[in-house]
Description:
Distance between the termini: 61 Å
Number of strands: 21
Bound molecules: ligand LLP
CATH architecture of the largest domain: Alpha-Beta Barrel
Shape: globular
CATH superfamily of the largest domain: Alanine racemase
Number of helices: 12
Structural class: alpha/beta
Helix content: 25-40%
CATH class of the largest domain: Alpha Beta
Strand content: 25-35%
Radius of gyration: 23 Å
Amino acid sequence: MQSDFTYMNGQLCAEKVSVSKLAEECGTPLYIYSRSHLIRQYRALADAMKSVQPQIYFAIKSNSNLAVIRTLADQGAGADVVSGGELFRARKAGVPADKIVFAGVGKTAAEIDYALKEGIKFFTVESEPELQRISDRAEAMGVTGRVAIRVNPDVDPKTHKYTSTGKAENKFGVDLTRAERAYDLAARLPGVEVAGMHMHLGSPIMTPTPYAEALQKVRPMCEALKKEIPTFKHLDIGGGLGIAYRFEQDPLDPRDFASAVLPLLHGLDLQIGMEPGRFITGNAGILVTRVEYVKESLEKQFVIVDAAMNDLIRPPLYGAHHEIISVVQTTERAFGDVVGPICESGDFMAENRELPAVEEGDLLAVLSAGAYGFVMASNYNSRGRAAEVMVEGERAEVVRTRETWDDLIRGETIPEWTNS
Ligand code: LLP
């Protein structure tokens, strides 16, 4: 795990760049991304699945920095977007419109119009009313909207309840029993054309079993629909492939994934799509933070750092585990919590953990922070969002500058009538 963030002469390096040096130059908290890792992960998946030549739509919700999207677009990736803003980013980063798919349960009319105007590959449709809306908007514009119905195969992905999406109780997709009706409706609507089927089970998923289970359920339906609808050409199997968040954890090997799902895809004669996010970006990034204080309490030590839940919310939100290592290698250990400066007890990166022993001013790296890290950052407690840096080999560049206090109040006004 994390092979692109290793110690060289006792100093943590991002590829070949010293993390301490980057922290000095760019300040902390700081996100650092390894471009080589992004490319390696993308290729490992594309290679493992090459017998079906999948179109990989990078889930840009996991990390939507333009430099990250561009890196993957250069490899041939398309984009899975879930908002007008993500579509805007994907286009700005150079992803061709015909390699973009648009998912999400709540697409607004304005977002649909924008996507139709851009000419995206297809919408992943989550309900019958949405089908109707896409058809109406497309008709009004004199174009056709391509749609893939997102089916909900009712399979348990065995992940956190907030990130599980393919069970009957979740808001996502159309139940298999209702899917036929949705396809009938789509076939009748004047403004849409059925492009195929979509599924996404949840994330992170650590074994290929749920995918195989779901594909067994949807394959017969795909075969039948293909016969009925000549434009039915795509099966998008979603994202969710897990990564190792712990040193001792085995990552999901793309070759194991491929051997479980390929037999269920071969012979279907459909263009296979995949929407990985975390698999590509998760271990491509770290969050570097500086120790402000070490506080001893009755029970344990609190390492108070300058990164907080507004920078990385996964630990408090999902109880997610992120390994934390020191930037200058040490074998000395301490026990306690790593916490941020925000005024909430939920503001922690690690709780009750064996940690590297550190002092005020030392640097720590929170690992596996490349996915759902910066993208979920907020300005809570009026904290500017961190800077982001991309490295490759010996090169490094700031790919997003740190937010300033002026950025924090951009767009705010005080109404004159409040001056009494
Ligand atoms: N496709 C669809 C339709 C999705 O909803 C998602 C993730 C993906 C693809 C990409 O999933 P990935 O390959 O990155 O696991 N904030 C949570 C994760 C939420 C995922 C939402 N949908 C976390 O930090 O774990």
